[in-house]
Design goal:
alpha+beta, two-stranded antiparallel sheet, 2 strands, 28% helix, binds zinc ion
Length: 82
């Protein structure tokens, strides 16, 4: 198992720090993952789906779509509800 990363900020109870978007988010923003120490995914749902989307796009269109474009399209979560 990977060593736990410690969030750089105080995380209140009922919240979790997403290391991908560097935001403290409510636990509801994290999908369940029984493999994780706290039962929640490492990345928040939006980062997770953005990553899944980028993977999908890369797989489907490896030649034409580059990661920066895929990420730019996947930025609407910057207005996270904390
Ligand atoms: Zn995130």
């Amino acid at each position: 198992m990977r060593p736990r990363k410690m969030p750089p900020v105080d995380v209140p109870a009922g919240s979790k720090f997403c290391f991908k978007c560097n935001l403290v988010l409510p636990l509801l923003a994290f999908a369940t993952d029984a493999k994780q120490y706290d039962g929640k995914k490492f990345d928040c749902r939006r980062c997770d789906s953005a990553a899944a989307y980028a993977r999908k796009v890369r797989k489907r269109d490896r030649e034409r779509v580059h990661l920066p474009e895929a990420l730019a399209m996947d930025r609407p979560w910057s207005a996270h509800v904390a």
